[in-house]
Structure formats: C-alpha cells, structure tokens
Automatic annotation (TrEMBL):
Superkingdom classification of source: Bacteria
Domain 3-hydroxyacyl-CoA dehydrogenase C-terminal positions: 472-566, 602-687
CDD domains xrefs: crotonase-like
UniProt pathway annotation: Lipid metabolism; fatty acid beta-oxidation
Chemical reaction(s) catalysed: a (3S)-3-hydroxyacyl-CoA + NAD(+) = a 3-oxoacyl-CoA + NADH + H(+)
Protein name per the record: 3-hydroxyacyl-CoA dehydrogenase NAD-binding domain-containing protein
UniProt keywords, alphabetically: Fatty acid metabolism, Isomerase, Lipid degradation, Lipid metabolism, Lyase, Multifunctional enzyme, NAD, Oxidoreductase, Peroxisome
Family: In the N-terminal section; belongs to the enoyl-CoA hydratase/isomerase family. Belongs to the enoyl-CoA hydratase/isomerase family.
Listed InterPro entries: 3-OHacyl-CoA_DH_NAD-bd, 3HC_DH_C, 6-PGluconate_DH-like_C_sf, ClpP/crotonase-like_dom_sf, Enoyl-CoA_hyd/isom_CS, Enoyl-CoA_hydra/iso, NAD(P)-bd_dom_sf
Matching PANTHER family: 3-HYDROXYACYL-COA DEHYROGENASE
One family name in Pfam for this protein: 3HCDH
Protein source organism: Lutimaribacter marinistellae
Length: 698
C-alpha cells in the first residue's frame, strides 16, 4: 500500500484517504494507491468503499509534474473503470475541488456526496485537451447532452448546489468529508442499496452533432479542443460504452499531439512562472493597507474599483468636487456590476461606496496612504506636476506609482527627491476587469517597492509582469510595431477590414482596427503627433488618413464612427464608407500602386513584426524572458491563448523560416524590418525562445 492513499476498515466500510499535498493530484503513486486500495477492500470482505481527500481538497486533477512525461500504469481511464467495476458499493465524498481526473474518479464511483463549498468540473479544454478518463462518456449519461456540452466545452467550475440540481452528485451535506461519506455509505448499506455504475445507465438520444460541433468551434474562435470534445459526447450517444471509451481516448491523444495543446500548456506554466523573480527572493513588500488614486476617469475609477473589491480603502483625488462626484458615480457603476453578478451584497456595495471610498480635492488627503497611483492625462508635463506634489505631501516610505502607458518612468522619478519609491503600474482598461498589470521598474526603484507592486497585483487578482523602461514598455511597444506593420499593409493594398477578418480568423478576439475603434482613435492620434513632434526617421513610412478621421471627430465607438460605422450598434461593425476613399487618396499622394494580399500573408507579416519586436524587447532586457512577453500579449492584447503567445508561436512555426521572411521583407523596407539580434543569434545557434525560459528557470 502506498502512503499517499491511507487505508483503514471501519466496520464493513473500507476508507481510502488521499494524502498527497497540496491538492491530492492524481500522480502515479496516487493512482496505484487507489487501485491497490480497491483490491484490498475486496479481499477484506467489506461491503462498501469510501474515497475522500485529506487536507484542503478532493483530487484537484492531474499532477502537473508529470506533464510531458510518458504515463505509467495504472492509467486513469483504467483506474476509473476498475473503481466502477468493483462489486462493492463505492462512495466518493467531495470537498475543495474535484477537477478533471478528480471528477472522473467521482463519476467512476457509484454514489457521490459533497460539502456545500465543493466545486467540480472538467477543465481539460483550458489546456488544449478534453476529458480522457470517461468524462465525455459518463457525464452525458448523468446530465444529458446540453448540460454536459456546456460543462465540458467551457471548462467551467460548478458549485455543489448546481451539481446536485443537475444530478452530478447525489447529496450535499455540511461536515467533514470523511464523516459525511461514512454516514452516507452506512445508510446505503443499511437500506440495501446496490451498486450504481454510470456506464450501465442509458445514453442520451443523439442530436445533430455536426451542427453542435460547428457551433462550439465558432464560439471557441478556432480552438479545437472544445469542438473535439463534442465528438466524444457523440461517441457516448452512438456507441456502446467500451467503444465510446476507446473513441474518447483516440480523440484525447489527437489533441495531446496538437500545437494548440502545446500553446495552452505553455500559457498555463508561463502564468505561474511570470511572477517568480530572483531579484525579489527574500525581499519583503512594504505595508499596503490603503491606497490613493489620482484621476477618476475610466482608468482611475477602474483602478479604485479593483482596490475596493480587494478590501483596500481608497482615497480618490480629483481637481473639483464635481469631478470627484463623477468619479464616485463611475466607481459605483462598476461596483453595481459586481452587485448584479452576485459578487458583492447590497451591504458590501454600500460599505465600499460610502465608507471605504473617500473623495478628496486636495493633495493633503493623500498624506497617510501607503501607495498612490496617478491615472491622469498621458502627458509628461502633467505627470511631473503631479509627482512634484506627491513628493511634498506623501509620507516617507509611501510608494509613488504612475499608470503611464508609454512615458519614461525614470524621467518621472527624477522630478522627486525619492526616486527609489517610484514605480510604474500600467493597468489595462477596464482596470477592474483586465487581468494584466505591467510593473515597470525604473533605474532607481527599490527592490521592496518592486515587491510591493507585485503584492498589490496579487491582492487585486492580476497577472503581473515585470517590465523595464522604454517607450511603451513590453506590450505597447510591441503593439506599436505590429500595428505599424498592419498600417503598411493598408497603404500597400490591403483594407483594414480584410486585416481584421484575417486576424480574427487566426484567433484574435478583435482585429487591430476594431480594437482601435474600441479604445478610441484619438489615443493613436495623440501618439502619432507626439512621435512626429519628436522627429520621425527619414526612412519611416507615415500616413495621415487616420488623422483625417480624427479631425472630422470620428474617434471610434464613442463617437459612433471610426474605421467602422456604429449607427446600428456597437456590435454591427459596418465598414465606414468614408475610410477607403481616404486610404486611396493617401496611396495616390504617396505614389503607391496597391497590390493584393492573401489572408495568410497578412497574418505572417503581422506576426513576424510582433515576434521581431518582441525579440528586441527580450534582447534589450525590457522583458526578462520570452514567457514575460507571451503572458503580456495573452492577458493584455487578446492574443489567442491556444497559440501560447507570440514567442511560443514563433518556436512552433520555426525560427529559421521566420527570420528568412523578415530578411525578405527587409528588401522592401530595411528601416522597419530590421532583424532582432536575439532572433539572429538563436537561429545561428539552433536554439529556441523556450530554451531561454528554461535557462532562466534553472
């Protein structure tokens, strides 16, 4: 008997207790222990078996330490079948989370009981695969096609009360899982209940699975795992159980071999690695019990909302009482969304808006906060003025943070007498929704200030990425480059609408021109004017057609027109008929003869520009590792998660071919298409971006 599965007999019930901290992951020793425990219970002549987890959870899923390694017997599908085929009554008592293989173990049991706080689900699609141990064969027999399709293709977690109403579990009871499980097993024995294998239950009637497949594929925007899982559910309905299990395994193995699975696994691990910084080892963050926010527009109100929801009191500073009241209304609207979704109660809403939030119009109100974030207009003179005042009023040791998207944090820090206390905290709008936080470390930022930035990110539930100082940091610097590549293609013959369509087919939630309309065309206009004022390189290509849209007051969704016309609503996205004439006039003025672009060429050029600039960002140390870039683009810029991030995508495409393309593009424009030295170095050495991630982890 392996020690990760305890075994004892209480009367005529054998108890198998999982003890594999921290989450009772279903590694080889656990699987072997369960198989041995079932066999031992049968030999001991008991009547029932109880399976439960010690510690904080039931089996929370596969053991991530075994990812990428050859599996060892007993394989999980065989274990679930072994549990189900036992002549004894098998009961699973669930608490914490029963996810993936954990829920499949429970489905292989004959009866299931859970504590009210338990959650369960089959989240395999989130890492590019599908249930592979009977999930697509047993769950539809319990809950039907609609519910099982929803659960399996979304990967969402289900609370105990919903699981009970659907029929996934049989009971919900308060108490320790061991106690409620033993009582339930005892009751089943005493009542003469028999075994109840899910595999012997009738499968649902088949539906139009081709239509369901297409619907799920469309909803997943090209991710194949959810749609492939539909074929597993189809096998449940159309094949005998044993054959359905074989079909499920075939589909599972197809997904295991896919690029999408590689991409999603990379994203999974990158998110866990991104916050692990050698420079912060042993560094304690500063006290963080209250924060100030300067500027109550969309961004400032979003930051304040996130902080309030995290339990931090907020002082909101605006320049006038009217502006402060408007900021409060924005925050209340944001919190109202949380109230409507059941995230907070009415009492909590009132406490957050009336007690935890303090409105102010004088900088002195910030004298006692531990950290202050300015979210004022993106102009260096304005930022410096704010930081000069903060330097005068904030207590010693307070962290002074800028939410700048592009500006030089070193220059901002230099206007204070305490540059070690200054850091960039670049939130993404809406700040209470978007998960990404770029933590911009200036030359003189103190290590405990960096640690405090990461501590704040954790409190707010953000995925935090360390960035160095440059124009646009990691994300916006790369965005500026790949967006410029798109603009060059428009000048040369593609339309904004073809580019959006091609990139949405690639997996982006929105193409770059739809995104520009959503963000506001005035933002890009301001950046272009700033860069022109600073002086463009003589060989840099420029265009003014988008400026003309802005000059006419067309800033995108907020004004009803941009690249698209929103007269029929925000989701209508009808091409604005004014745009193509402006582009054609620009081409004529610059003497450009337009040519056709295929969708494939659009994607390749766009991605090549993204990867090349990302390689420069890593090579210059703005991002410490390739995975930092991948996480930034995944969480802040709508990069399709199943592709893993731009540098993971590049590895899978092959760096030599990508470099060849960049060199070929450079023959047309050797100013824009300058190959990144790091990319050239990796190709010359036959290495990949992922090799750099592994070096850093080592």
């Amino acid at each position: 008997m392996t020690e990760v599965i305890g075994y004892e007999v209480i009367g005529d019930i054998a108890v198998l207790a999982a003890n594999n901290p921290p989450v009772n992951a279903l590694g080889h020793a656990v699987r072997q222990g369960l198989a041995d425990g079932i066999a031992r219970a049968e030999a001991d002549g008991v009547k029932a078996v109880l399976i439960y987890g010690e510690g904080r959870t039931f089996f929370a899923g596969a053991d991530i330490r075994e990812f990428g390694k050859p599996p060892k017997e007993p394989f999980l599908p065989d274990l679930c079948t072994r549990i189900e085929s036992s002549p004894l009554i098998v009961v699973s008592a669930l608490h914490g989370t029963a996810l993936g293989g954990g829920l499949e173990i429970a489905l292989g049991s004959h009866y299931r009981i859970a504590v009210p706080s338990a959650r369960m689900g089959l989240p395999e699609v989130l890492i590019g695969v599908m249930p592979g141990a009977g999930g697509t064969q047993r769950l539809p027999r319990l809950v039907g096609i609609d519910a099982s399709t929803d659960i399996i293709t979304s990967g969402r977690q289900i609370k105990a009360d919903e699981a009970l109403s659907l029929g996934i579990i049989d009971r919900v009871e308060d108490g320790a899982p061991r106690d409620i499980g033993l009582a339930y097993a005892r009751e089943l024995i005493d009542s003469g209940a028999g075994r109840r294998p899910v595999s012997e239950m009738a499968a649902p009637e088949a539906v139009d699975f081709d239509a369901l497949y297409e619907s799920v594929l469309k909803k997943a925007r090209g991710q194949i795992a959810p749609a492939t899982a539909v074929r597993g559910i189809q096998a449940c309905c159309e094949l005998p159980f044993d054959q359905g299990m074989k079909r499920e395994r075939e589909l599972f193995m197809e997904l295991m071999a896919s690029d999408q699975r590689q991409g999603l696994i990379h994203a999974f691990f990158a998110e866990r690695e991104v916050g692990k910084l050698p420079e912060l080892k042993g560094v304690e963050p500063r006290t963080l019990a209250s924060i100030g926010v300067i500027g109550g527009g969309t961004m400032g109100a979003g930051i304040a909302t996130a902080a309030l929801l995290a339990g931090l009191p907020v002082v909101m500073l605006e320049m006038t009482p009217e502006a402060a009241q408007a900021a409060k209304e924005r925050i209340a609207k944001n919190l109202g969304g949380a109230l409507k979704r059941g995230k907070i109660s009415q009492e909590q809403f009132e406490q957050l808006t009336e007690k935890a939030l303090t409105l102010a119009t004088e900088y002195d109100a910030l004298s006692d906060v531990d950290l202050v974030i300015e979210a004022v207009f993106e102009e260096m003179g304005v930022k410096k003025q704010v930081f000069g005042k903060l330097d005068a009023v904030c207590k010693q040791g307070a962290v002074l943070a800028s939410n700048t998207s592009y500006l030089d944090v070193n220059e901002i820090a230099a206007c204070t007498a305490r540059p070690a206390d200054v850091i960039g905290l670049h939130f993404f709008s809406p700040a209470h929704v978007m998960k990404l936080l770029e933590i911009v470390v200036a030359d003189k930022t103190a290590p405990d200030v960096v640690a405090t930035g990461f501590a704040l990110g954790k409190m707010l539930g953000k995925v935090s990425v360390r960035a160095g100082v440059c124009d646009g940091f990691i994300g916006n610097r790369i965005l500026s480059t790949y967006r410029t590549a798109a603009d060059h293609m428009v000048l040369d013959g593609a339309s904004p609408y073809q580019i959006d369509k091609a990139l949405e087919a690639f997996g982006f939630a929105m193409g770059p021109y739809a995104v520009a309309d959503l963000a506001g065309l005035d933002i890009g206009w301001a950046v272009r004017k700033r860069k022109r004022a600073e002086g463009l390189h003589p060989k840099a290509r420029d265009a003014s057609y988008a400026d003309k849209l802005c000059e006419d007051g067309h800033f995108g969704q907020k004004t009803g027109k941009g690249y698209y016309d929103y007269a029929a609503g925000a989701k209508a996205r009808v091409p604005n008929e004014e745009v193509m004439p402006l582009i054609e006039a620009e081409r004529a003025e610059q003497g450009i003869t337009p040519r056709d672009f295929t969708d494939e060429e659009i994607v390749r050029r766009y991605m090549a520009a993204m990867v090349n600039e990302a390689a420069k960002v890593v090579g210059e140390g703005i991002a410490r590792r390739p995975l930092d870039v991948d996480v930034t683009l995944l969480y802040g810029y709508g990069f399709p998660r199943y592709r893993g991030g731009p540098l993971k995508w590049a590895d899978m495409q092959g760096l030599p071919a990508l470099l060849d393309d960049i060199r070929r593009y450079a023959q047309e424009d050797d100013y824009f298409w300058q190959p990144a030295p790091l990319l050239e170095k990796l190709v010359a050495e036959g290495r990949s971006f992922d090799d750099l991630n592994k070096e850093d982890a080592a």
